[in-house]
Amino acid sequence: MLWLALHFPLLPLEALPLRQSPSAVVSRGRVLACDRQAAEAGVKSGQKLSTALGLQPGLAVFEREAVRENGALESLACWAGRFTPTLSLAPPNTLLLEIGGCLRLFGGVEPIVDAVLAGCAEQCYSPTWAVAPTALGGRWLAQAGAGAIYREPAAMQAALAGLPCAVPGWPAEAQSRLASFGLKHLGDLQALPAAGLRRRIGSEPVDDLLRARGELPDPQQPFVFPESFAIEIELPARVERAEALAFAGQRLFAALAGWLHGRQLLVRACTLQLKHDDGSLTALVLRFAEPAADEGRFLRLLREQLARLHLAAPVEVLRLLADEVENKPGASAHLFDAAPVGEGALACLERLRARLGEAAVQMLGEKADYRPECASVHRDAAADVAQPKPSPPPAAAMPPRRPLWLLPAPQSLAERAGQPHWHGPLKLLSRAERLESGWWDEGEAAAAGDVRRDYFVARNPQGQWAWVFRDAQGWYLHGLFS
Amino acid sequence: MSAVALPATLAEVLARGDIWRGDTLASLPTSAIPSGHAELDAELPGGGWPRGNLTEILIDRSGLGEMSLLLPALARLSAEGGWLALVAPPWLPHAPAWAAAGLALDRLVVVQAGKQAAWCCEQLLACGGFAGLLVWPEAGIGAQALRRLQVAAEGQATFTCLWRPLTQAAVPSPAPLRLTLATSENGLSVQILKRRGRPAARPLNLSLPRPGRSSRALAGPSLSLATARGPAAAAVA
What we know:
The complex is a heterodimer. By secondary structure, chain A is an alpha+beta fold. Chain A is about 30% helix and about 30% strand. Chain A has helices at about 10-15, 35-40, 50-55, 65-80, 105, 110-120, 135-145, 155-160, 170-180, 185-190, 195-200, 205-215, 245-265, 295-310, 345-355, 370-375; strands spanning about 5, 25, 30-35, 60-65, 85-90, 95-100, 130, 230-240, 265-275, 280-290, 315-325, 360-365, 375-380, 405-410, 415, 420, 425-430, 435, 450-460, 465-470, 475-480. In chain A, the strands form six sheets. In chain A, strands 14, 17, 18, 19, 20 and 21 form a six-stranded antiparallel sheet that branches. In chain A, helix 11 crosses helix 12. By secondary structure, chain B is of the alpha/beta class. Chain B contains eight helices and eleven strands. In chain B, the strands form two sheets. Chain B has an eight-stranded mixed sheet, sandwiched between helices. Chain B has a two-stranded antiparallel sheet with strand order 1-2. In chain B, strand 9 (about 175-185) and strand 10 (about 185-195) form a beta hairpin. The radius of gyration of chain B is 22 Å and the shape is globular. The relative contact order of chain B is 0.17. Chains A and B meet through helix 15, strand 12, strand 13, strand 14 and strand 21 of A and helix 3, strand 5, helix 4, strand 6 and helix 5 of B.
């Protein structure tokens, strides 16, 4: 086992995305955490709120909410599902990732740590960390801000010996006793006989020390990825611009991507609910052309959607629900293939649809109908393209030639001396092809209806090849052979 | 002190991929797509339609056979499983004809881009998933937008073709390959306005399969009667 412990000292503050600077979280009238700008002005944790406001008059103050911190920690755990399926929460502000099992996938400890820290920074979290063979040892080292990798128990034990005895979570009485004995570092405790130490400071701290050193087993409660995904973020201030929501949304989608990895799922559609300050809800449905689990793709689609959105009222809460998920099919990686450049056709179409609208991006489809205006259908680019269908058998030999382009509606042509004119007299080059069809939707609104037409291939003096027809009303231009 | 780089010899310089001599056609680093017309391939640098560059085709009116010129190449791309996109086409594509030309309809995307055609093309090129892109930009597309498209197309394995009016022939364009089309007696007259290489002298006359006349000859009553009678007459004799 190798644990990466992530300790979030500023979690009460960082659980609030989109807060302005300087800001601080207070609990019972005393500062609990403050951001860097406030700290530079002299604000410290433990200070009275009045002192802090005196030092930094523009300080934005938030009351601590344990529920929100728990939510943030859980969404971080979901996010970390992309790195390892074995995680454990150590409330209130520490996350443990078992990375010993996925070293080969990422190519070593350092790449994992780098990726995890970069991901935290992207979501605006600033953890302190440590990698250690025991969970508790990792936690203590992370809380002390070690920021180092201890692969071997011996190295970790040496590092632990240098930590001060003021371990958070130990009873205050034990700590004061240790101080009165003159014991400053955990290493000093080791030199003492365990039985006597137990009598003096209680069993718990001694057992903790043994667990941290790896001398007692320390099973961790694994984090269970929720069955269905629904995470919300409460925004500290009301947001009036849709684009600004992209940042807060990023945390949600990062958590979604991790959750999907952790549960080996793909998402087909998800809903981002925006709760407005007047209590109304806006639902933003993100539908993917193919089931996806890629955070970058989620965000690109979200930005397109937000760019088109006009907020009716300021937003207070963001909530993300995964609506349609499916199991991820097993796939084996290619040994030598280079990764494809770019995001691929389907992801691109999805983004074009988000900007131009559903109707503007469509695939061509064929329908068995004799009437030319009914033979082409537009298919939803998102529907059923994930599984390529077997192409239909080639049409019968020598099918009648059809033009590549149709006019949106047949254009009436002038007729002189029995000859249709389109930029000059049209020379008919084929025999008439009679199309007589469509009695079934005669009289229905917006239907082509019954047609009885003789089609000809024709050419005009400019050399344009046209598809014209004659019916009871006269001559019409209907298509172009191009 | 590091060694000073020796001056490269002229032969080494000439052997570089991005140098072409004025009296020969440039060979493009990216693979070209055979156009299906041997005479045209011989005149195109790289021996076919270029990938990773803009190709401009200038016509003053449609219906001359300009799509038929491209169909063999498009059908080849489609047969290889590539995606094709028609951006802002001026008419409605008629599905049976495209399918009969050998294009897989479930990989043919029609984008009604309107004023955002240039943006769409950039996205379609950048995603790297498309094998062919046919674009009908609006008449007033500026040199800057064209330049952006050329930059977006560079290095991508996409055949990108822009249809533009003949009036733009005199206006400079960043596209490395520009053709004008005109009708001729038995097909299509193709003049290469600009290519990487020495200028093309005379227009090419390509014969294209056209609808009409040939089908009348084959389906005419006299011919079918004659073939029906042939074996029977032989049996009698």
